Amino acid sequence: MRLGNEFNGGFPMIDIRKEEPADQEAVRQINDIAFVQGSEVAIVDKLRKSCKTIVRLWLSIRILS
């Protein structure tokens, strides 16, 4: 799915797709940076292992000028 609107003189493209295995390390790094204590990273890892039926989505936003 792609969405977009005029934004700060540019055009943002928002891509939403199913998470792929290669995305997991990027998610881990973002959580590690965002949550300094690291417990959030462990929670996400545990959810990933125990909840196989959860739909995981990947969101990327690019500003096109």
Helix-strand category? alpha+beta
| Low-pLDDT residue intervals, each spanning 5 or more residues | none
The number of domains: 1
Strand content: 25-35%
Report the biggest beta sheet as strand number plus sense, adding barrel if it closes: 3 strands, antiparallel
Q: Indicate the mean pLDDT.
A: 76
Shape annotation? flat
Helix content: 25-40%
H/E series, N to C? Answer: EEHHE
Report the C-alpha radius of gyration, rounded: 15 Å
Describe the protein in words.
With 65 residues, this protein is α+β, with helices and mostly antiparallel strands. It has one domain (2-64). 35% of the residues lie in helices and 28% in strands. The chain has helices at residues 24-34, 39-50; strands spanning 2-3, 11-18, 57-64. Strands 1-2-3 form a 3-stranded antiparallel β-sheet, with no helix packed on it. Strand 1 and strand 2 (11-18) form a beta hairpin. The protein is flat, with a radius of gyration of 15 Å. The protein starts with a strand and ends with a strand.
What is shown here, in short?
This protein is of the alpha+beta class.
List strands and helices in order, with pairings.
Blueprint: E1 2-3, E2 11-18, H1 24-34, H2 39-50, E3 57-64
Antiparallel strand pairs: 1-2, 2-3
